[in-house]
Amino acid sequence: MSPESQRAVLETPRLLLRELGVEDLDFIAELLGDPLVMRYWPRPYTREEAAEWIRRQQQRYARDGHGYWLAVEKASGQPVGQVGLLTPRGPSPPDRARQDSNLRPAI
């Protein structure tokens, strides 16, 4: 599936949010591998972990109707990060989704 055929989720004057696909691996691996971007996570991700990340988001789209979406700057067509809604899991999850994001430092 090409980025143009990925399902758009939300559009603002500056950004387009769309579902992640396997063709986004290069960008997502770079983003999740950046120590600055991942400073609040246990550690940066490897390329293989980034590929699994994309698969998990696709599972979340199917299961929850949401997950992390790719944020694309409309003016340049370039991805700038990911933003999304996550449904917490566990023995006593909250009753609503929470917002989270990973953006390039320049944004």
Describe this structure in words.
The protein has a 5-stranded antiparallel sheet with strand order 1-2-3-4-5. The mean pLDDT is 85. The protein has a single domain, classed as Gcn5-related N-acetyltransferase (GNAT) (Aminopeptidase), CATH 3.40.630. The protein contains 2 helices and 5 strands, in the order E-E-H-H-E-E-E. With 107 residues, the chain is an alpha+beta fold. Helix 1 packs across helix 2.
Number of domains: 1
For this structure, the CATH topology is Aminopeptidase
**Spatial gap, N to C terminus:** 27 Å
pLDDT < 50 stretches: none
Task: Give me the count of strands.
Answer: 5
Mean pLDDT: 85
Strand arrangement in the largest pleated sheet: 1-2-3-4-5
Basic shape: globular
Beta fraction of the residues? 25-35%
The named CATH superfamily: Gcn5-related N-acetyltransferase (GNAT)
Q: Mind summarizing the main beta sheet?
A: 5 strands, antiparallel
CATH class: Alpha Beta
Class computed from helices, strands and strand pairing: alpha+beta
C-alpha-based Rg, rounded:
14 Å
Fraction of residues in H or I helices: 10-25%
Figure out the total of helices.
2
Name given to the CATH architecture: 3-Layer(aba) Sandwich
Q: Which sequence of SSEs, written as H and E, runs from N to C? A: EEHHEEE
Summary keywords:
2 helices; Aminopeptidase; 107 residues; 5 strands; alpha+beta; single chain; five-stranded antiparallel beta sheet
